[in-house]
Write a structure and sequence with these properties.
Layout: H1 5-18, E1 28-29, E2 32-37, E3 40-44, H2 48-55, H3 77-80, H4 95-108, H5 116-122, H6 131-146, E4 151-155
Antiparallel strand pairs: 1-2, 2-3, 3-4
């Protein structure tokens, strides 16, 4: 189909007749804003992030500079049952709200790599989420408020070189004493 305008038009007409869709032209794809310029193609969640901020009720909050506290100790409810419990960190009444928010944050990590570590940490607690987990997730949303249009630039430079780094840390998980990342 690629560059065949007639075939693309027929496919769009078929999809429109079968499903309820909006044709957002080449500017949006699955909620990702696509902007083309002489520098290359930039990808961002410029419209999706304000939706999340609004739905979480954080429109009037002050943005924070980091997505998650450096030495935050998030634990499961099973870990807190023993002598480790302070009794103040209760399970959420409706954990689906937390799961939904974490799911949205996971989707944002496609473009917003700066929240990847925080979201990976939060995603470990979707089964029995506690108030501390929800507060940490809301802090990530407050961080996103700082620069909602931040994204990725895919440069026109064809001499792109990919470099990846991994910060492995031993015994991150306080319950199993195992690392939570792997190759």
């Amino acid at each position: 189909m690629g560059n065949d305008d007639v075939a693309i038009k027929r496919l769009k007409e078929y999809l429109h007749a079968t499903f309820r869709i909006k044709d957002l032209l080449p500017k949006y794809f699955l909620g990702i804003e696509i902007a083309r310029s002489e520098l290359g193609i930039s990808l961002s969640h410029r419209k999706f992030i304000p939706e999340i901020i609004s739905k979480t009720g954080l429109s009037g909050c002050k943005p924070v500079v980091i997505p998650i506290e450096q030495n935050i100790r998030l634990t499961t409810s099973e870990f807190n049952i023993g002598a480790h419990s302070d009794g103040n960190d209760l399970l959420l009444g409706d954990p689906s709200v937390y799961r939904s928010l974490v799911g949205k944050l996971i989707y944002l990590t496609l473009i917003r790599l700066d929240i990847s570590y925080a979201v990976q940490t939060l995603s470990q607690f979707t089964q029995n989420a506690k108030e501390s987990h929800m507060n940490a997730a809301l802090k990530v949303v407050m961080y996103l408020k700082k620069c909602p249009g931040l994204g990725i630039l895919l440069s026109r430079d064809y001499n792109m070189e990919m470099t990846a780094y991994c910060d492995m840390d031993y015994a991150t998980c306080p319950m199993s004493r195992r690392s939570v990342t792997r190759f």
